[in-house]
């Protein structure tokens, strides 16, 4: 009897323990990082969600809402992680009745905001479903009316301090600017200022996404035509770079793209080398001398960053500075502080003020470097091409914005592709195009066009970095938006070339053929959403292509061996294997072999035939990369 009582007691205790464990697991099914940051999630009344209904457990869906069509049906709550970049929907539909409507929510690079039927991808700002309980100028209240400008409408020029204060037309203009990726000059300074308020809150108050904040703030620099706004933006970027102690490589990349770099940012760049006994790398020394106001002599010419100029500077620097200057830790420090422009953020002197080493209090250690710089400048003869590159990073640069607007004006529809010619772009950049002689475009001229477009936030298609490919001045080109400083991946560049080549091989004329081909390339290459948008845009020149298949065979044959051409042929046939044209007859296979100059009986080996598409893609990247010398 005693053993029976003991057994019953143990069974009941185990059952209670298991139920408690199950409840704990359900309660913790949300984002643990959110609980660490903010404690327990709160409902409308400020009570713990678990107290609201002991028998009802809130479970977040496993994936964020990514389909714009489903956004209107999703429900949101403070239980959704504040640090996440996408809204989350509840798996329990009954929770829709309890959706919180006045919370301030963040939407970053991987999310979207839907206002009526208008979707803004990756706005990197705050939003709410009704008036937010937390005052925030940048908050996009999706319940407020929005009107989008029509042709002939007068653009409002009045100053506003927040999204809520905007009239419907201003909201439409602002949302359109955000949806365009913030790559065009805003219609009014208030738009970037309001957006910056949200970035400040995210970095200063939430203390999250600091890397995203500094990268997206830097994106705005080349768009700023308002000096006060530009100066404030530079101060914020500098303070944030100090705050997160930006890694050396990232900091150097940031400084490379600026004509003048604030002292604080340069001091951080130099701090890694103080008392390290390591010579200052030539790229760092070159960037320092190019961008520092303190080290420049009055009236000294400023030059842009380029790998070519760095190569000229490096041997002079190493020879005159005994392999590179070595810096000691300076005795004095300097203070970096930032006062947010966001009126809803109270400045915190303790957290907003940072002390760093001041390398510019004593300039004597830099004297050998300054001597090397003067020798470099004296021997630098500015060629015609270098003058053009210099112009694109100064206020006297060509009016690229007007050039793009003129292309838009010629289009019948607002969303038509932006198509011009190499000759028209060359004329804008003051390159002697010699159209009448049909002169081919030189490599240096191609680089000028690519650099000029990238500075202004555009990618030129077709890719100008393919060696041996002939480009003519009357050839059509397409302008695709590209974030300033963004580097196109090898996967995208090769996928773009493969897609273009296949369109020529198949004589593609219809979208029904192009779209499946474009989507199929995702099986072979790691392509981002932006990469897919770029591939989608190139249909404007691929349907139909300007060139016959043999055009591609000519320059491919120069760089690839017979073995590599066979590998490319087998890859292309694998990609096109779903097409009826390949299944019904051998014309496409025969044409592909003929263009590449290989035999038709060169089928893949059994081992190669068993490879997955991703492995085939990885293999072909090594082959096709030989064509990309630039």
Structure, explained:
This protein has 27 helices and ten strands. The model is unreliable at about 1-5, about 15-100 and about 390-395 (pLDDT under 50). It is mostly helical and about 625 residues long. The chain has helices spanning about 1-25, 30-40, 50, 170-180, 190-205, 210-220, 225-245, 250-255, 265-270, 280-290, 305-320, 350, 365-380, 385-390, 400-410, 420-430, 445-455, 490-505, 510-520, 530-535, 540, 550-560, 560-575, 580-585, 585-595, 605-610, 615-625, and strands spanning about 105, 110-115, 120, 125-130, 140, 335, 355, 420, 460, 475-480. Helix content is about 45%, strand content about 5%. The longest helix has 26 residues, at about 1-25. Strand 2 (about 110-115) and strand 3 (about 120) form a beta hairpin. The protein is globular, with a radius of gyration of 29 Å. Helix 5 (about 190-205) packs parallel to helix 7 (about 225-245), helix 10 crosses helix 11 and helix 23 packs antiparallel against helix 25. Strands 1-4-5 form a three-stranded mixed sheet. A three-stranded antiparallel sheet has the order 8-10-9.
- Largest sheet, if any? 3 strands, mixed
Round the Cα radius of gyration to an integer and report it: 29 Å
Number of strands: 10
Strand content: 5-15%
**What's the average pLDDT?**
76
User: With helices defined by DSSP (H or I, 4 residues minimum), what is the helix count?
Assistant: 27
- Spans of at least 5 consecutive residues whose pLDDT stays below 50 are 1-6, 16-100, 391-395
Helical residue percent band: 40-55%
- What structural class do helix, strand and pairing data support? mainly alpha
First CA to last CA: what distance?
87 Å
The side-by-side strand order for the widest beta sheet comes to 1-4-5
Shape: globular
């Amino acid at each position: 009897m005693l053993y029976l009582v003991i057994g019953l007691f143990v069974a009941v205790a185990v059952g209670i323990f298991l139920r408690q464990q199950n409840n704990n697991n359900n309660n913790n099914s949300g984002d643990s990082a959110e609980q660490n940051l903010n404690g327990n999630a709160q409902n409308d009344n400020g009570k713990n969600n678990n107290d609201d209904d002991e028998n009802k457990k809130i479970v977040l869906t496993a994936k964020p809402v990514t389909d714009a069509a489903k956004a209107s049906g999703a429900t949101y709550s403070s239980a959704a992680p504040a640090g996440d970049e996408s809204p989350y929907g509840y798996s329990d539909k009954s929770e829709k009745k309890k959706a919180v409507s006045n919370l301030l929510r963040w939407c970053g690079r991987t999310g979207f905001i839907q206002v009526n039927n208008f979707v803004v991808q990756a706005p990197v700002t705050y939003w709410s479903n009704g008036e937010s309980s937390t005052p925030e100028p940048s908050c996009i209240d999706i319940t407020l009316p929005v009107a989008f400008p029509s042709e002939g409408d007068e653009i409002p020029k009045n100053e506003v301090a927040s999204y809520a204060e905007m009239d419907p037309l201003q909201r439409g203009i602002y949302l359109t600017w955000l949806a365009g990726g913030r790559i065009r000059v805003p219609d009014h300074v208030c738009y970037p200022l309001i957006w910056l308020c949200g970035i400040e809150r995210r970095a200063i108050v939430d203390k999250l996404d600091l890397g995203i904040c500094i990268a997206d703030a830097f994106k705005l620099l080349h768009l700023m035509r308002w000096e006060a706004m530009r100066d404030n933006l530079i101060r914020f970027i500098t303070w944030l770079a100090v705050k997160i102690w930006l890694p050396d490589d990232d900091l150097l990349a940031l400084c490379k793209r600026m004509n003048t770099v604030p002292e604080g940012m340069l001091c951080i760049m130099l701090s890694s080398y103080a008392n390290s006994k390591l010579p200052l790398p030539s790229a760092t020394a070159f960037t320092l001398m190019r961008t520092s106001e303190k080290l420049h002599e009055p009236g000294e010419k400023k030059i842009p960053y380029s790998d070519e100029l760095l190569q000229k500077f490096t041997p002079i620097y190493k020879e005159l500075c005994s392999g590179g200057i070595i810096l000691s830790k300076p005795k004095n420090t300097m203070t970096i502080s930032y006062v947010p422009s966001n009126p809803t953020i109270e400045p915190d002197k303790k957290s907003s003020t940072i002390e760093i080493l001041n390398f510019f209090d004593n300039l004597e250690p830099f004297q050998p470097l300054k001597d090397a710089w003067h020798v470099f400048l004296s021997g630098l003869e500015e060629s015609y091409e270098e003058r053009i590159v210099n112009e694109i990073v100064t206020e006297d640069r060509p009016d690229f914005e007007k050039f793009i607007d003129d292309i838009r004006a010629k289009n019948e529809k607002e969303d038509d592709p932006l198509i011009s010619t190499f000759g028209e772009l060359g004329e804008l950049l003051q390159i002697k195009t010699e159209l009448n002689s049909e002169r081919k475009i030189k490599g240096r001229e191609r680089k000028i066009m690519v650099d000029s477009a990238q500075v202004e936030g555009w990618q030129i298609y077709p890719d100008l970095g393919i060696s041996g490919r002939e480009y003519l001045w009357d050839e059509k080109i397409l302008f695709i938006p590209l974030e300033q400083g963004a580097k196109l991946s090898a996967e995208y560049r090769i996928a773009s070339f493969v897609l273009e080549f296949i369109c020529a091989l198949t004589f593609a004329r219809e979208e029904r053929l192009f779209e499946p081909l474009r989507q199929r390339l995702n099986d072979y290459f790691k392509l981002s959403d932006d990469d897919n948008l770029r591939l989608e845009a190139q249909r404007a020149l691929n349907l139909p292509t300007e060139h016959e298949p043999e055009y591609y065979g000519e320059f491919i044959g120069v760089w690839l061996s017979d073995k590599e051409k066979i590998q490319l042929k087998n890859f292309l046939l694998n990609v096109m294997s779903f097409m009826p044209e390949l299944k019904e007859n051998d014309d496409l296979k025969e044409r592909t072999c003929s263009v590449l100059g290989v035999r038709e009986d060169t089928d893949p080996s059994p081992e190669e035939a068993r490879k997955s598409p991703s492995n085939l893609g990885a293999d072909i990247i090594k082959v096709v990369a030989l064509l990309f010398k630039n």
